[in-house]
Design goal:
Elements: E1 3-7, E2 10-15, H1 22-31, E3 35-41, E4 51-56, E5 61-66, E6 71-75, E7 79-87, E8 90-98, E9 104-110, H2 114-119
Parallel strand pairs: 3-9
Antiparallel strand pairs: 1-2, 2-6, 3-6, 4-5, 4-7, 7-8
Length: 120
């Protein structure tokens, strides 16, 4: 089930939009979030359970959470951020410049080695 929460004055929607009524997700997303994170494997399968760490340009931790599903939405003040997502023992980092208007979408993709696929 998706989770809406306030973390250090940062509003996040964590999980999958299918877990919430469509009008709630669409209304919330269209009006307030300015950062969307998507988590997937290189083969295109979605991935949940990523550890998310967002830091401002001075290295201060702004948000730390575990994503319940492949989508993670948040509203942050305008500024520059480093977003690190860790899954399958590997960390992928992206940078985001958020303005007072619009939304930034960051995609995080993890490669699975052939051996990992075979063992499962």
């Amino acid at each position: 089930m998706g989770l809406c929460r306030l973390v250090d004055c940062v509003f996040t929607l964590n999980g999958s939009s299918k877990d919430l009524p469509r009008n709630v997700v669409c209304e919330w997303r269209s009006d307030t979030d300015n950062l969307q994170l998507r988590f997937a494997l290189q083969n295109g399968n979605y991935l949940g359970g990523a550890h998310v760490l967002i830091q401002d340009d001075k290295g201060k931790r702004i948000l730390e959470a575990i994503s319940d599903g492949p989508l993670f939405f948040t509203k942050l003040p305008a500024g520059n951020y480093t977003v690190a997502a860790t899954a399958l023992g590997k960390t992928v980092k992206r940078t985001a410049h958020l303005s007072s208007k619009g939304q930034v979408q960051l995609n995080f993709t993890w490669k699975i080695d052939d051996e990992e696929i075979a063992t499962g």
